[in-house]
Structures are given as structure tokens and as C-alpha cells.
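Dear colleague,

Thank you for sharing your sequence with our group. We've completed the structure prediction you requested, and as agreed, I am returning the results in plain text so they can be pasted directly into your records. Please verify that the sequence below matches your submission; if there's any discrepancy, let me know and we will rerun it promptly.
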Amino acid sequence: MSLETNKQLVADFFAHFGRKDVQGALDMMTADATWWIGGKPALFPLCGLKTKAEIGELLNSLVPGTKDGLKITPKAMVAEGSKVACEAESYGVLGNGRTYNNEYHFLVEVRDGKIAAVKEYLDTMHTADVLKG
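Please find the predicted C-alpha cells below.
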């Protein structure tokens, strides 16, 4: 796949969350895909390495309950080889009424036209604050 095709795949992948379509995003991932969230799991259990099934469970517990989806907007992308680096911003009103507006750096690995791995760097303090209430 071309670098531009890989970048479009990543943009399309994140667009599913704005439509509350977690399954659509999961369908774009390889069977053995992983998703790593930066931070210390002992301090914040959402962090660490997750399987596709584990991240699916996590996303399904958050995204469908949002008011209008969790919009993840890519701000800049750089691609090299099978990897896409993506700076992004999210926005969504969660089921608890709190606004989730985070900034990220994602490193996404593409294999055979699917998402094989995601590394997510974000403001874990903001996430913990918004999810607690």
C-alpha cells in the first residue's frame, strides 16, 4: 500500500468512533492486532498493552454511550514504511455528562491493508478526571 493509502486508512479508522461504530473500527484491525495506551497500568488500569478483544471491550464501554460519538480528528500525519504517525484531538460528551477533549499522538502500524497495532500517547490525567464522574 502507498503511504497516502495508509494515512487514509488511519483517518477512516478513527472516523468510526465519531459514528459510534466501534465494530466498524474493529473490523479494520487484523485478528492479532494490539493497542497500547501510554501510562502505568498500576496507576491507571486503562493503560498498557491490550488485545483486539480487550480494546474492543473498552471502546464498547465508552463510545456508544457518548452523546454524538467520540470524534477523533487527525491534525497531522506522517507515514513511512508500514507506520503512520498521527497527531489527533478527540471530542465527545460522555454518558456521565463530562466533555472528553484529549490530544494524542498515535503510532499506527498497517499490515495487509488493516490496522495491526496502535500505540496511543495521551493525557491520562484528563482521561481519569473525565471518566471518574
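Summary note from our side: Residues 3-18 form the longest helix (16 residues).

Kind regards,
the structure core
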